[in-house]
Amino acid sequence: MQKQSVTIYTVAREARVSMATVSRVVNGNPNVKPETRKKVLDVIKELNYRPNAVARGLASKKTTTVGVVIPDVTNDYFSKLALGIDDIASMYKYNMILTNSDADDRKALQVVRSMMAKQVDGIIFMGHDISEELSLEFSSSAIPVVVAGSVINDENLPAVRIDYQAATEEAIQYLLEHNNDKVALVIGSKTSTINAQLRIPGYQKALQEAGQPFDEGLIFEAHDSYREGYDLTQQILDSGAKAAFVSDDGIAAGLLNGLTDHGVNVPEEFELIAANDTKLTEITRPKMTSVTQPLYDIGAVSMRLLTKLMGNSQEGDGQENGSEQNVILPHGFEERQTTR
Q1: 3-state secondary structure (DSSP) of residue 122
Q2: CATH homologous superfamily for 64-162+296-331?
Q3: What is the pLDDT of residue 1?
Q4: Whole-number percent of the chain with pLDDT over 90
Q5: Of 12, 92, 112, 20, which is closest to residue 59 (Cα–Cα)?
Q6: Tens digit of each residue's pLDDT (9 = 90 or more) over 143-162
Q7: Cis amide prior to 267 (ω within 30 degrees)
Q8: Checking DSSP bridges between strand 243-246 and strand 219-221, what pairing results, if any?
Q9: Which CATH class is domain 164-292?
């Protein structure tokens, strides 16, 4: 005999209340008498009733679910952001769908479309620049989107981040003050918005203020990869650089190990500053000096901002202009063993 599914109607019938009352109990609405609430909860427990989140979403036009797109779920930078997002999502009683885009345009488009098909109430996007197709997908949808921990090539999307230009400028200034006349900048891609518009200008400004010439040959690309950081070691040494600021902790760890394997003493012969202060900076030997970012807070504030935007979209206001919604959180600096 096939087991019949338990519906909200079944619960209402057994508890001798209306379906609206069951709905109020399930959704935590306080406007239910305590004795009625207990009766309904007893029936729910007895029948093992599980509310259908999709059906509830269709009725309320809200699924209380947010989508989070991460370029690399194994990267400690993004996982720390996700922790902050999840804690605030739980506080506001939102479920979180976490997906990995592999930093690939086609996969990012695919996972975002899948989230939209699931009728998520909002999306937090992590990663770098997006394709024209994905930008169009975001702009043509009423679903609000917040960018966490980066800057991308879509100014209409609000972002929560630190001031990457100022952080780069400060790190380069620090290395120049230590009598390093040639300081390298090691980044992901020279053309990505975060690097082209913020980190490289910060690098140039620090050089200019120190009276040092700008040399394009001292900018290296390692695409957020430990292996590429390691493999760049000889090129960086051949450039004459005596120090480097590195935009990703994985790249920085790769370069640090490459320097060690080349017999270069860090920090006596080469100084190194990482950018994200993830756990990698403390498990390397020597421990890496780093710009510090409030990663958990960036995630938490991103989710808080998204709840505001979702509230507005429910009221019909739609996505607010990104430029008015950017939140810049303070960064810091932690001296460890890779600087003198």
Answers
A1: strand
A2: Response regulator (3.40.50.2300)
A3: 39
A4: 67
A5: 20
A6: 999 999 999 999 999 999 99
A7: yes
A8: unpaired
A9: alpha beta
